[in-house]
Amino acid sequence: MISVEEALAKTLNLVSELEVESVPLQEAAGRVLACDIVATRSQPPFASSAMDGYAVKGVEVEPYAMFSVIGEAAAGHGFSGTVGAGEAVRIFTGAPIPKGADYVIIQEDVAVRGKLITLDSEIENHDYVRPLGDDFAAGDRIQAPRVLRAGDIALAASMNAPTLQVYRRPIVALIATGDELVIPGEVPGPDQIIASNSFGLKAMLEEAGAQVRLLPIARDTKPSLTQAFTLAKSADLVVTIGGASVGDHDLVADVAAELGMERAFYKIAMRPGKPLMAGRVLDVPMVGLPGNPVSSMVCGQIFLVPMIRKMMGHPDVLPRELTAKSTQDMPANGPRAHYMRAIISEDGITPLLRQDSGLLTVLSAANALLIRAPHAGKIDAGAIVSYLPI
Ligand SMILES: Nc1nc2c(c(=O)[nH]1)N[C@H]1C(S)=C(S)[C@@H](COP(=O)(O)OP(=O)(O)OC[C@H]3O[C@@H](n4cnc5c(N)ncnc54)[C@H](O)[C@@H]3O)O[C@H]1N2
Ligand code: MOO
């Protein structure tokens, strides 16, 4: 058995960044930018007004000064003339500052009579002019790599970049295995249960950015598993669920071996998740998850999500572990790293009472995985422990 850290390094080694593709701006959120975005224009492209008011010459601004209004400048429709001494142009937010003017008096500080304005006794000492290129100048860049958030998309749009270069999303083929499984909505036979892991994993991996194909459930026979692997050949990552352990019907390792699997490892010092395996099958990176529902979801979180992130070009692939005070005493841990389903709140972190890897109710109630290292000693309530939010 190898450690979680070794297994993580080996699973990450199986994959690399995928190719770069062009996507429309509207579809780029959450993707990782692969090439710098270069602004093809400055913003604003002209000095512009930050307020509704009157554009004048700044040197003429003083209490009770009077100006005659000679025209109007609105956003999208500038004033074509020049502002002279004693003159003002009615101006609105976003409009170009007219020639000759360099100051905007907000309309709240002005008394208007026909075409004449008089400044109040107190005037704000602020020109309300946004200079040309105040936000960015032509040639400025959004640097890659970068995970594109909503604010970045707005900035890229403003830079007039209609398509962006991003890493491709990985295609993941998910193969649930087991004669006992039927899909949700079907009527299970007396010895059957509903397949849950593939649906939970699909949600998890899609949230991480993957495109997930749910393959038909493979039966516990070699031909059925062989067919499933063959169907998955065009994916960037094949994930099997179940059949990973040592029982007579756990055939994933055997079938993968018959298909020439280059095995990276089998079995890790982790709880849940001991029978995890990984390698390449039919030249496709493959991870074999244990079937117990919580085991497969926890392994998905710890191993698959970082693999997806690496393929998508993320600069940081590993989740950042956080720390909190344990609200409970805890006994010494055994030889496997324990990822305990737990609840993090302002009081600290509390491991849930039942940790059996078949309990999806417990996983659903948890919002964190409390991490106990192999052979960690016993701790008292109040001790600092590591966790991952889930
Ligand atoms: N003698 C031993 N028995 C087991 C060991 C061991 O070391 N020695 N390891 C245990 C551990 S730990 C785990 S985890 C499980 C993993 O076994 P498999 O990967 O072979 O999984 P299965 O036997 O196929 O299934 C286990 C369990 O999970 C249910 N299952 C499977 N797939 C799904 C699915 N897609 N959706 C919902 N539930 C699923 C399945 O019905 C079983 O109940 O092995 C232990 N045994
Ligand atoms: O490791 Mo198993 O995954 O404990 O249930």
What can you see in these coordinates?
It is a single chain. The chain is 18% helix and 30% strand. The chain is α+β, with helices and mostly antiparallel strands and 390 residues long. It has 4 domains: 4-17 and 169-311, MoaB/Mog-like domain (Molybdenum Cofactor Biosythetic Enzyme, Chain A), CATH 3.40.980.10; 20-38 and 140-167, Molybdopterin biosynthesis moea protein, domain 2 (Alpha-Beta Complex), CATH 3.90.105; 48-130, Molybdopterin biosynthesis moea protein, domain 3 (Molybdopterin biosynthesis moeA protein, domain 3, Beta Complex), CATH 2.170.190.11; 322-389, MoeA, C-terminal, domain IV (Beta-clip, Beta Barrel), CATH 2.40.340.10. It has a 6-stranded mixed beta sheet with strand order 8-5-7-6-10-9, with no helix packed on it. The longest helix is centred in the last third of the chain and has 19 residues, at 293-311. The protein starts with a helix and ends with a strand. The relative contact order is 0.14. The model has no long low-confidence stretch (mean pLDDT 97). Residues 271-274, 290, 292, 295, 357 line the site of molybdate ion. This is Molybdopterin molybdenumtransferase. GO terms for molecular function: metal ion binding; molybdopterin molybdotransferase activity. Belongs to the MoeA family. Pathway: Cofactor biosynthesis; molybdopterin biosynthesis. Its cofactor is Mg(2+).
